[in-house]
Amino acid sequence: MTPEINLKTPEIRANPYPTYARLRKESPVVLVKHPLFGKSYYLTRYNDIVSSFTDSRLANDRRNIEGDKDPLDRWWVPSLLRAFKNNMLATDAPDHRRLRDLVHKAFTPRRVEEMKQAVEKIVGELLDAAQKKQTVDLLADFALPLPLTVISEMMGVPEEDRLTFHRQMGGFLDNLSSPVGFLLQTPNAFNMLRFFRKLIRLRQTDPRDDLLTALVLAEEQGDRLSEDELVSMIFLLLLAGHETTVNLIGNGTLALLQHPEQLQKLRENPELIGSAVEELLRYGNPVDQPSPRFAREDIHLEGHVIPRGSTVMLLLASANRDESVFENPDTLDITRKPNRHVAFGMGVHYCLGAPLARLEGTIALQHLVRRFPQMKLAVPEQQLRWRGSIGLRGLKALPLRLS
């Protein structure tokens, strides 16, 4: 019998790692009630999760399970979520390759490296503004504006629309915990859908040198993206292009403040910033779990049977603390090598924006640590609150005194 557990309690959201450690030991396959997909099988061990990324018995698109009903087709699911089925995270070959090929050129390491100067300029301006305040919310004043500005400029989102869009998306993601939450977010989802369609029409009539124009005009073997595919791609790129980096910077800063000896080591050895960012990705887990997989057939795993058609979720945050792979996994070590974390996933669905996230996280943390040697939490740690999103792991706010 596969055990069942509720991973959405405030206590577990605040610190899921003791629970994950127990599950890895006692219940490597655990049933969790997912708000969208019902009872889902969560994998908790590193090796099982890594294998799942390339397991042909698992599909990313539920429509590839013959005779299976898609829960996203329920009447109470907002149309934006139904359109989201067409994104490249929720597709299998050959559709996945077609969609990924349309955007991968914008995120190559070379193209991202060309953005370094722009990122450093934005970081400098944001920290100049932060320095004038006694206390800051690192998320609202720094960790959010940086990636939101970068991805919005890449996508061609007008400046006056950016914060409104972020608030809409944040409210949407934080309320994906029940059908009631979905229904309450219907107006928000409708507004986002209308916003995305407005962007598409804008770039159809007024093309610019940006990624959105490239997507609108793109042709791949004589085929263009449908409007649903465009909406889904915009949603995915804007979401993944800033929400996860916000969490990398926020969770990473908190982890360094919780481990002052590691923070001091980074200040004294700035050349460690590369390995520090990798460790903060492993330790802080900006993405708790990626998009779901679906069993094409009965799968026998760790003494359990995952029935055909079942939803399978991969707990990346558990894999990144697996004691069978990482020595002292609950210890932050900015010199950790090797560091085979799975924060960006693996295989063909490896995060397309990983080079950009690394660049932004590296520059942001490097400048923050160097510029404010006296920074500390402005509230007791127990007052910090974590967001309710079931897929992303991030704080609601991170109040700091910078001097």
| Range of helix content | 40-55%
Kindly report how far apart the N and C termini lie: 55 Å
CATH class: Mainly Alpha
Element order: H for helix, E for strand: HHEEHEHHHHEHHHHHHHHHEEEEHHEE
Overall shape: it is globular
Describe the structure in your own words:
It comes from Archangium lansingense. InterPro entries: Cyt_P450, Cyt_P450_B, Cyt_P450_CS, Cyt_P450_sf. It holds the Pfam family p450. Keywords: Heme, Iron, Metal-binding, Monooxygenase, Oxidoreductase. This is Cytochrome P450. There is one protein chain. The chain contains 18 helices and 10 strands. The protein starts with 9 loop residues before the first helix and ends with a strand. It is globular. The strands form 3 sheets. Strands 1-2-8-5-3 form a 5-stranded mixed beta sheet. Strands 4-10-9 form a 3-stranded antiparallel beta sheet. Helix 7 (116-131) packs antiparallel against helix 9 and helix 16 crosses helix 18. Helix content is 48%, strand content 9%. The protein has one domain (10-401): Orthogonal Bundle (Cytochrome p450), CATH 1.10.630.10. With 403 residues, it is an alpha+beta fold. The model has no long low-confidence stretch (mean pLDDT 87). It has helices at 10-14, 17-26, 46-52, 79-83, 95-103, 109-113, 116-131, 138-143, 145-155, 162-173, 179-184, 186-205, 211-217, 227-258, 260-268, 273-284, 316-319, 354-371, and strands at 29-34, 38-43, 58-59, 135-137, 293-295, 299-301, 304-306, 311-314, 376-377, 399-401.
